[in-house]
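Possible regression after last week's pipeline update?

I re-ran a chain I had predicted before the update to compare outputs. Posting the input and the new output here so someone can diff against the archived version. Not blocking, just want to make sure nothing changed silently.
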Amino acid sequence: MKKLIQSLNAPQPSGPYSQGVKAGNLIFVSGQDGVQPNGASVGDSIAAQTEASLENIKNILTDAGAGLSDIVYMTCHLSELNEETVAEFNHVYEAYFKEVEIKPARITVGSQLLGVNVEISAVAAVN
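New output (post-update):
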């Protein structure tokens, strides 16, 4: 059985998809980018967009009764995949998961993104 996850504390979907879906003990969070819940961009920096993406994911999970420590897998897209952007991305990412004992499995790839530099999706497991 599937359950819709819809948070007012993250940007509303701009297309035919859900912010999140809970299926069994898994929560799937759609790709979140450098946009604030009110729809405003946070700017072009990798750091600011990574922080906004992770805040959106955290807020969606919170509204679903979960948290960052429940994430088991993340897919991270960067518009530019090079040592500098990955280092800037990892600096912010690491701060969000500093207190998490078991870090999520993850892939980070270079992608052609529309109007943003970072987009992150997540899968969380809850009891």
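Follow-up from reviewer: compared with the archived run. The chain has one domain: 2-125. Marking as no regression found.
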